[in-house]
Design a protein that fits this description.
Elements lengths: L12 H5 L3 H15 L6 H14 L8 E4 L2 H10 L3 E4 L2 H6 L5 E2 L6 H8 L3 H10 L4 E6 L3 H12 L7 E3 L7 H9 L5 E4 L6 H16 L3
Parallel strand pairs: 2-3, 2-4, 4-5, 5-6
Antiparallel strand pairs: 1-6
Helix pairs in contact: 2-3, 3-10, 4-10, 6-7, 7-8, 8-9
Amino acid sequence: MSAPAAWPLRGGWLEKLGRPPAEIEAGSRARALALLEGRWRGEEAELAASLVYAAGDAGLVGLVELRSDPLGAALAGLAAGGSLVVDVGMVAAGVRRQALVATRMPGAERLALECGTTRAAAGMRLAWEQGPVGLVAVGNAPTALLAVLDLAQAGAPPGCVIATCPGFQVAAEAKAALAASGLPHLLVAGSRGGSGLAAAAVNSILARAGSGR
């Protein structure tokens, strides 16, 4: 069966509901910002809106938390030469800059077996050995976030932490520990989140770095 000659198909769903990409993005961002009205202003509102937009979930509004100027801290950390570190390849695939990926760090699997932990947590330790970290994003593995907190406590804090790792085990507790840590951060509290949200937040920050904020 061949594809129809006329495209979009006359009377089809794409013709009825489809919109140009710019129009879809602008409308979605405006809706997300409207949902956040009164909670944050300016660039912080844009950063928080990136999570709500990426999730397509108005219920996320009350779970987003920003503390200690995460945008400014991330931009300063990256500008000073700090690396971008993410926990898994799914986050790396969505960000617009090369990142160190914890689960792909050479030796991560071996170290995880030796320490009885996850590859993501072991990989964070190895990523930290590469030098200062300007921004770290954990979108999948709560144990990676726990490792970040331990590394910060040991004297090597990152510029900023993004935490959107989901799950019914460890995730909520790890994000609560981040909230109490004093580190500049952006997180989605509780068990909800995902890699796409972490990537969206990173890209929102990188867009401001590119514009010279």
